Amino acid sequence: MRWRRRRPLYAEQRPTLWRWLLPIFGAMALGAVGVLTIMLWRKPIIEDVLREAIADLGFPEADLKVVSIDLKAAEISGLRLTPGIGAERVRARFRLWPLGNPIAESIEVIGLSLDLRDPRLADALADMMSHEATDEPRPPLPTIALNRTRVRYGTPLGPAEATLDAAVRRQRRGDTQVTAELATRLAEEPARASLTMRLPFERGKPVEGRLVAGWGQASEAVWRLASDFAIGPEREPAIARLSTLGLLLPGHGELTAETVELQLAGLGQDQQVLLLHVPALLHREAMPWHGPLTLNAALTLAGDQLRLEGDATTLGEARLTLSGQHDLGRKAGRAIWRLGGLAFSSPGCTLFDLSPRFGANLTADGGLEADGDVSWNQGALQARATISARSLSLRGRDWSLNGVDGTVALGWSGDSVVTPGRQSLARFIHERP
Prior knowledge:
Blueprint: H1 17-56, E1 63-69, E2 73-82, E3 85-96, E4 102-110, E5 113-115, H2 119-129, E6 143-155, E7 158-170, E8 176-186, E9 189-199, E10 208-215, E11 219-225, E12 238-249, E13 253-265, E14 271-283, E15 293-302, E16 305-314, E17 318-327, E18 332-344, H3 351-354, H4 356-359, E19 363-377, E20 380-395, E21 400-419, E22 422-425, E23 429-431
């Protein structure tokens, strides 16, 4: 007689393998249906998600079309953020970041269109720069390529347009390499610029690069960008310091400066301010003033009104100040200038300090002061100047002029004609007031 092992009573309540697998397969089936549904309807869904994300950046009128998308790549066409900001096509490739989130590995933007006069562009940039840094790990910056970019901007002579090609690449040490080529026209002359810049991976390290810009047939500016280049949050002024600046002017020699500091505030706002500071500007060739100049200037643009305040100081005390305003709509304005504190003595400031060319054969003692104003209206130019001498003595190799005191007043008027790259006077009248 064979005994059969009876199943325990609780065996009927024990879940079988099938009972465990059934909900799993059911979830997989539902997931497959969900994935199939998303595959069929993913483009409209993703388009809506992207529109909402772009609207959160300050572009509620954004529009786009998803051409193709999968787990490795996506392509968008007809991207429009505002009437002045958009792109013909955007291509991106992805890979998985920890926790399964996809991150962009490369982004290519074709036919990007930017209007720098659009205030919403500046608002979006300021908002992105104002986000505080966190200690959370961030995905690496993708490789970015901008092809056939068109940039529209405003100038005192009217609207202008530039073309731009740029690339952003990640380096082995974590630094980011930026290259850009720009072409435009200024005063009917071609202008080009190329930029190579390194963004350091470590915080607190300087941003270094090289910028080469040319205007016209022969003019070329070459300088190196180093340290303290940043766009501050909350609309703080953008600060840039240039080192080893060289500006070659065709037919007029070369201007050089060890450092140049620029500050820009209010980009895209009703009032924009550009501040310039040059501790020492030298001209070693054609111009007679070879002594170092210290320059300070403030340029303010508010609507059609352009204001300029500036001064130049040489050899400690000699100072040239300039104050002016120009109406872009009326093409009229006025500027006032004054030169003071130019004193010659030995030892002290000499003509050789100002110009080795003149100072080698000529010495001077005494002082000079001058002031004047210039006004213009629709091409008509008027200018006045007053020059005062204080015990001025000049001595050459075989002649001398001693103890000159007095004031000379001069006036000019004429019709100025502006041609590309130069300014000439059609009529020039020298008269005493």
